[in-house]
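Researcher: Let's run the pair from yesterday's discussion. Sequence first, then tokens, for each.
Model: Starting with the first of the pair.
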Amino acid sequence: MIIDVHSHNFPPQIAARALSALVHRTGDTLQPSADGTLYNQLDHMEKAGVDRAVMCPVATKPAQHGVILRTAIAIRDGELGERASRMIVPFASLHPADEDATAHLEEIAAAGIRGIKIHPYYQEFSLSDPSVWPIFRVAASLGLVVQCHCGYDIGYPGRYDACGPKDIAAFLRNVPGVKFIAAHLGGCSGFAPHATDEIMDLGCWADTSALARNWSRDEEMRLCRSWPTERLLYGTDFPWVSYEESLRWVKSMRDEKDWFRVLGENARELLGL
């Protein structure tokens, strides 16, 4: 089984506009490999032999919690079709400024949604800010997986102050037991070589998503090769990188004996699939 733990799609009525805005934000240096819609993603997954993908929405405002959760439930329950229900693992999202964060996390867990996606830049907080740790301690107590953008974001040039390796380390040391996925190979992009090594032994997972233009960089290659096999997860950031390209890269970085765990089994166990 191949499971992508880091993918995105958008409602069909806004997908083209959303992708265009994100491309513009990156100075047109980032181009999608698909049209950004759910059903197009399913087509790409089937073509590449990817069985499941975690859908990672981000609540950029506290009020978006509800609509994101309702969409996740609709996908899981088959309201958007049998293929989506079978192939997509929908996450919810929570904004750290949400005054009802505890109740909303409990609602997410009670609904059977397996995790949440957060993005410190889009949500304007830092992982090293003690004021947010209690929220994520609640998430940890509920068994929710926390998938987090980590490291540099091409849409926020010059920002290195919210989710780099030291921020992640502070977070992990103060939110014990959290099932934390440090996206983009532990947030190595934009930081000194070996900076991410600080979090390797703190119990989090890393996903393999990295922009294709960075895949020839020594640090991304080193981390994909050396991250502990049992805590490395296949992730793409689809639609920004195609499934075919990302699979080729991960397989070229890891010995074939690791593929079973990295490409699917670790994620299956973490998500309880």
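Model: Moving on to the second of the pair.
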Amino acid sequence: MSTPQTNPTNDDSDDEKNQQSSWMDLLRGSLGPYTILLNLGIALHAIDIFVITTIMPTVVSDIGGISFYAWTSMLYMVGTIVGSAAGGHVRSRLGTRRGYVWGGLILLVGTIACAIPPDMGTLIAGRVVKGIGGGLVIAQSMALISDLYTPSIRTRILATISTTWTVASLFGPGIGGVFAELEYWRGAFWAQAPFVIAFVVMSWRLIPEKSSSEPHRPLPWRRLLLLAAGVLAVGLTSQFKTHLSSAGLIGLAILLVWWTFRRDEASDTKLFPSKALSLFAPVGLAYWSYFLISITYTTLLIFAPLFLQELHDVTPLMLGYLSLVFSTGWTIGSIAVAGLSGMRDRIGSVVGMVFAAVTTVAFTFSILSGTIVMITVWITLVGFGIGITNVLMTNYGMGVAREGEEGITAAAMPTIRALGVAFGAAAAGLVANMAGLDEGTSRETIYRVAAWVLGFTALIPALAALVCYRAVSWGWQFRTGR
């Protein structure tokens, strides 16, 4: 077993520094403008996700294309994963400033393309471009956090990003709803354009230029296309009703994604850090935790509304409220542990996932036979546990990056999370259909499906807890020399 490559600053020796840091440090001196810029970039991506789901009924009534209703979100996800996977390469080739600016410019082009389409095909193309731009921005934002924020304050900036996602979940549907009510869905995209322009201008003015010493190499299109094909395969599972077809597409997707990582490991122009999927390397452990966390919340947020609507007669407004309290719990969990570092943050990451697993079980029982009050309490606590582990393992992943791979390790994190979203949705859909969801939505059927899907979901954070425990024990062995 090889010795883990760790960043010595991410250790218990940082505790004293961490105690001296405060939330105001994010806005003091040179960090203030960066904090604002990074959260603006995250917000532009996050709000769009919530806007599109709100305006789509209005879109199809205007330009048609109902048979491609789900493709606007699915291909946006494909674009986001491709963009985030390419983020580290673009950054190393163009430099920190120009790489970030180009991500913003592509996002702007995609935003305008989504505002002017005459038909669904053009809108889908615009969504792909917008997804690529958003992926580039998110990936390079994570790399900048690794560059600009020391470990003693890094968990705090990561917690503010969680807050930004919560704010987006609150305002995104409202923005989309206003323009949908006005029957001017294009305005939802035009309204975003000035903020994207402001983001590009701020990026050019604020981001320090850091040119790469590496020789310019071509973009690894084959691996990016291979990855896109894998994501597309898993996304298409929702279009097929038979269990065999869905399972076959998931298997094909796993093969294509694995092949992408295998080719990348042997390449000189990496999209991902070394040993990105290894359970015997610190970075691999961090990445697996992101993947499993994404599966957990994706499954919950996709199927919980159906179970609540059918078993508890919950209104659409209340469903939106429950999504908000989940996000709020996530944010509170992130903020609560933002001051931890070293071994304490790794132990905290295990506790967070154990807590999420236990509360997911409790949430399952409350869905099956509880009250809406208890459902609200448990879904908030699930978010709380996930928020704890997410922020701590993100900081851990940045701290254990191999020397020379710090930027690409941080930049690839959003790709792993997005892959978790894609595979989580597909796996949960397969479990639901095998439990009988394709037979109808009678109360008895939904009750059975809820038990199976939420039971499956509760296993995922339990697995993530084991992964995080492996990271804890590895860090202890490293410091004690065992």
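Researcher: Give me one sentence on the second I can quote.
Model: The chain has three domains: 22-213, 221-266, 273-482.
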